[in-house]
Write a structure and sequence with these properties.
With about 250 residues, the chain is α/β, with parallel strands linked by helices. The protein has helices spanning about 65, 75-80, 90-100, 170-175, 190-195, 200-210, and strands spanning about 10-15, 25-30, 35, 55-60, 85-90, 115-120, 125, 130-135, 145-150, 155-160, 180, 215-220, 245, 250-254. It has a seven-stranded mixed beta sheet. The chain is globular, with a radius of gyration of 17 Å. About 45% of the residues are buried.
């Protein structure tokens, strides 16, 4: 797939649950804006890519595969200092992170970050160029997706939810230039997807078709799937031709 590029998204971690030999857990970076989507184990790859004097880390939720990389920030900032780090998330999730992940017995060094509450449905701006619309996603414990609009590009990040073409988030994300959507299970494992609050290939394809993004990439992939085709991408092709499976260290232009 080839598209004219105005933004770049770096896939620092594309797995769910735990790392594999080839994938770290969820973390995506937009160097031009200093925006990090989730802070999984892939966050250690951040330093050489930083272009701004700040970082804004948007957390979908507080399951460990999406937040463990917050403890890597000391190393990241030692290698590439910035003036400001803000972590954005649901208030209850941020409280849990500060109380448990950063309790003295687990991580004894205080982090110099600003903690900022997100409320689904309440848009906010990052800098002068990025407008963020957070939206609620059904998932055990709750999750948040994001639509981000810049003057010349747009994207949506949808992870840790069960895909549904009639979901409330579909009209919010509709028409974006780039859609990142989780796909933790194959179509044949749909029962497991529903049981765990995740998505399977055919459901994602139907949902992505309803969103009608210019390009769609599947993320939050099952780390136990070690083949070149971890989701059975053929199941998605009848619904959507511009769809691919994201890889660690891939750079997506949109």
């Amino acid at each position: 797939m080839v598209y004219s590029a105005s933004m770049k998204l770096h896939c620092l971690g594309t797995a769910g649950y735990h790392p594999s030999e080839t994938r770290q857990t969820s973390c995506y970076f937009l160097p031009e804006s200093g925006i990090v989507l989730d802070a999984g184990s892939g966050l250690f790859r951040l330093p050489s890519l930083i272009q701004t004097d700040h970082l804004d880390i948007l957390l979908s939720h507080s399951h460990l595969d999406h937040i463990c990389g917050l403890t890597f920030l000391l190393s990241v900032l030692y290698q590439h200092p910035v003036q400001r780090v803000r972590v954005w998330g649901d208030e209850a999730k941020l409280t849990a992170i500060k109380k448990h992940l950063f309790c003295e017995s687990i991580f004894p060094v205080p982090l110099d970050v600003q903690w900022n509450r997100i409320v689904p449905g309440e848009a906010f701006s990052l800098g002068n160029d990025a407008n963020v619309v957070p939206f609620a996603l059904p998932h055990p414990g709750g999750s948040i997706g994001f639509r981000i609009d810049w003057p010349s590009a747009s994207m949506a990040y949808v992870t840790d939810t069960t895909a549904d073409p009639k979901a409330d988030y579909v009209p919010i994300a509709r028409g974006v230039d780039l859609l990142l959507h989780e796909c933790n299970f194959r179509t044949s494992q749909d029962e497991w997807a529903i049981k765990t609050g995740h998505s399977s290939t055919r459901r994602v394809a139907e949902t992505a078709a309803a969103i009608d993004a210019k390009q769609t990439w599947l993320v939050h992939l099952n780390p136990l799937e070690t083949t070149d085709d971890p989701v059975g991408i053929a199941d998605a092709k009848p619904y959507l031709s511009k769809i691919g499976v994201a890889q660690d260290l891939q750079v997506i232009d949109f």
